[in-house]
């Protein structure tokens, strides 16, 4: 493998790993949902995978429209639920005894669960 190709594979591997960490999913979950075998996925994460075969599957799983998203040296990662909550809470005007804050956190957790369920069902329908 040429040095350029190896460097590209390492950038993609790092970006995929960073993306998975940002959305707080496990590597096994991504492998299973994308239809990539665990062995192939592990190879992908160390820069030795088949990018042409596996990147479109990952893009489809996460509904990423740009086929070169993971190839960019500096990608904009999605916010984790924790960061989203922190940002939202900073902008949310709290009143009284902070019960609104707890209700908001609970609502965000429920919303995240619902979105994940919809995402899973839609992906399962597209794959199966």
Whole-number mean pLDDT: 84
Helicity, as a percent range = 55-70%
Portion in beta strands: under 5%
The number of distinct structural domains comes to 2
Low-confidence stretches: none
**CATH architecture descriptor of the largest domain:** Orthogonal Bundle
Looking at CATH, which topology of the largest domain would you report?
Answer: 434 Repressor (Amino-terminal Domain)
Helix/strand structural class:
mainly alpha
Q: Which radius of gyration do the C-alpha atoms yield?
A: 18 Å
How do the helices and strands follow one another from N- to C-terminus? Answer: HHHHHH
Count the DSSP helices. 6
| DSSP E strands, number | 0
Indicate the CATH class of the largest domain.
Mainly Alpha
What does the main sheet amount to? Answer: none
Outline the structure in words.
The protein is mostly helical. It folds into 2 domains: 1-78, 434 Repressor (Amino-terminal Domain) (Orthogonal Bundle), CATH 1.10.260; 79-128. The chain is built from 6 helices and no strands. It has helices at residues 3-22, 27-34, 38-45, 51-62, 81-91, 99-127. The radius of gyration is 18 Å and the shape is globular.
